Amino acid sequence: MNAIPSPRLSRRLVPLRRLSPLRQTAPLPRYATRVLGAALSAGAYVACLPWDLRNRPETPGALHETSPVTPAGITFLTLALLSLAAYFGVRDRPVWTLLVVAAPPATLMYVSFDSHPTQDAQVWPLAWAACTLLFGAGTLVTAMVARRVKGRPQDGDAPR
To answer: CA triplet 95, 40, 112: central angle to 5 degrees?
Structure first.
């Protein structure tokens, strides 16, 4: 059964239906949109999880270091990356969505971990790998859900 959407819902979805796939646009706007998306993704990471290269133990002899990461920062970063993943999921292919949305924060996290002055227990590669997997999986799932909600077929599917 095909449900007929209400006129009110149809009017709200009109802007989503106007978004054309990026592969159908000219090369300059296509790549400019992707670069802007990558810059927004990197900017969200830097704004929400600021780097504090002065990480020091809370007290002399303590094992725990201070960190500028807050729950609000993680929440805002998650919302920003999910929004970008949904937008690029509707407009672009999944591979490009992954490169534009998940790769910049993963790269910045790697640089942040690698540039830390003291490598205490060397567990940062494990933390980086887990966060990169989380960024990638969240991006792909959000992109696929957004693509299905919009009603566009997947790249390999036949048109409906």
So the answer is: 90
Strands (DSSP E) found in the chain: none
* Residue 72 tokens, joined: 């609000």
Compute and round to an integer the Cα radius of gyration of the chain.
20
Crossing angle of the two packed helices 124-150 and 71-91, in degrees rounded to 10: 50
Query: Is residue 108 within 8 Å of 46, Cβ to Cβ?
Result: yes
Task: Return contacts of 46-53, CB within 8 angstroms, 24+ apart.
Answer: 46/108, 47/76, 48/73, 48/74, 48/76, 48/77, 48/80, 49/73, 49/74, 49/77, 51/112, 53/115, 53/116, 53/117
Whole-angstrom Cα distance, residue 158 to residue 29? 27
- Residues in the chain with pLDDT < 70? 1-18, 52-68, 117-121, 152-160
pTM of structure = 0.75
